[in-house]
Amino acid sequence: MKYFVCLGDGMADYACRELDNKTPLEAAHKPTIDRLASGGIMGLCKTVPDHMVPESDTANLSILGYPPEIYSAGRSPLEAVSLGITLGKDQAAIRANLVYLSGEGEYENLIMDDNTAGEITTSEARELIEYLDKNLLSETSDRIFTGISYRHCFITDTWNGFRDFTRPHDIMGQYIGEYLPPEPYLSLQRRSRDLLENHPVNLKRAAEGKKKANSIWLWSPGKNPALPSFKETFGLDGAVVCAVDLIKGIGLCAGMEVPSVKGATGGTDTDYRAKEKAAEYQFLSGKDFVYLHVEAPDEYGHQGNPVGKKTAIEKLDSEIMAPMLDFLNSYGEDYRILFMPDHYTPVSTRTHARGEVPFIIYDSRRQVYPVRQYTEAEAKDGMYVPTGPDLMRIFLEK
User: Fold this and answer.
1) Model confidence, pTM
2) Under CATH, which architecture does the 2-73+226-395 domain have?
3) Taking the mean position of all CA atoms in its chain, how far away is CA 345?
């Protein structure tokens, strides 16, 4: 038996006026996904416990079978693992976004214009992060490491235990004054703007009509993560195919194979087909379980772009699910597919939201039922699963 999970990050949504009052899932043309819904089990799952924030680390840990109440230590330490950073006993990792702050005057009077700095490229970001590492942190033992696009990792020996942080994607379009971190992190953010505002990379971006990456934003601190082996827990050799460091870190901490995929960007321009081919390769290499994560729907949700989100879902269907279904059917072995988002990222609010997310479990041994669409509304009439770990046990027939 082969097990394939396709996770469309932030894919669930509300009805959008721009899509004739349909959700992106309802508006998207996705014949392969709807075929899976017709032939499988559909329902809703609560991936994030009520007392926890609907973040991707919490939700993806949950879906992979790790209760986040036990294993969630913040997203930044997981991203550090992906970057090959080993945290010391007294060290902490803190996410450092490159963001675009608009407006003039004092730092606290600026506006969180774009939490991705216009989806800055990794090559541009590397130049800025290396500049900050040399000039912002030169008198400390702290370091800042380049991740992917706008997502980077700040490592400190002097974490003061602050937890009351604000996620930049939660305050889009708002003045940042009441959301700033405590010292010494506030001073680092202020100084980063002084250093970045007129950096040649940003001057070039501005001349091209692009948004600057003119500040870092520090959030989600934590210490070393530790997860039980996925193979020891579920008895399956697994792989994680993704581009974002957070999901890579989860896979590495769980002892899974995490290949690098050329063209996979962790943004809206990712190479969907390259990810699907990488998943095929993992199965051909003997893996029993492959978890393929696509960030694009979440990015379009944060941008407030319903048409883009609809298009991302259609690419999930045509460039990942359709060829993967053909591959699994030709492989000569029974298989199961789990298709779902991790959480809601509504385009109307541009941030993560609570809610039970729709899932499909398709089993190649089952008969085909009357045609159904995979949507949030249709899933309400199906199975209810109270936690992500429960869903993983059902999917793996444990």
Assistant:
1) 0.85
2) 3-Layer(aba) Sandwich (3.40)
3) 11
